[in-house]
């Protein structure tokens, strides 16, 4: 199970690195926009991301 968790974390790093590598200027503007959001909006976006990820994991498995 540890190997699967580490594999998943490695894949997250690969996927997270795609946008900064392919479109660094756009990624930089996106981060600037995120910095202007309130804490509540960021928290809700994080919750939505976790729920969607959990649902996708359930459907795949």
Structural notes for this entry:
The relative contact order is 0.06. By secondary structure, the chain is mostly helical. It has one domain. The mean pLDDT is 91. The chain is built from three helices and no strands. Helix content is 90%, strand content 0%. Helix 1 packs across helix 2 (24-35). The two termini are 14 Å apart.
Helices and strands, with pairings:
Layout: H1 2-22, H2 24-35, H3 39-60
Helix pairs in contact: 1-2
Identify the notable features of this structure and list them briefly.
61 residues, mainly alpha, 90% helix, membrane
Oligomer: single chain
Mean pLDDT: 91
Alpha carbon gyration radius: 14 Å
Kindly state the number of beta strands. 0
- Give the overall shape, derived from the CA principal axes: flat
Question: Structural class per helix/strand content?
Answer: mainly alpha
Biggest sheet statistics: none
Q: What is the H/E string?
A: HHH
Poorly predicted runs of 5 or more residues: none
Portion of residues in beta strands equals under 5%
**What separation lies between the terminal Cα atoms?**
14 Å
Count of individual domains: 1
Helix fraction by DSSP (H/I, runs of at least 4): over 70%
Number of helices: 3
């Amino acid at each position: 199970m540890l190997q699967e968790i580490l594999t998943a974390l490695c894949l997250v790093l690969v996927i997270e690195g795609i946008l900064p590598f392919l479109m660094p200027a756009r990624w930089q503007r996106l981060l600037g926009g995120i910095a202007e959001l309130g804490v509540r909006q960021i928290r809700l976006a994080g919750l939505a991301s976790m729920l969607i990820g959990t649902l996708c994991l359930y459907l795949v498995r």
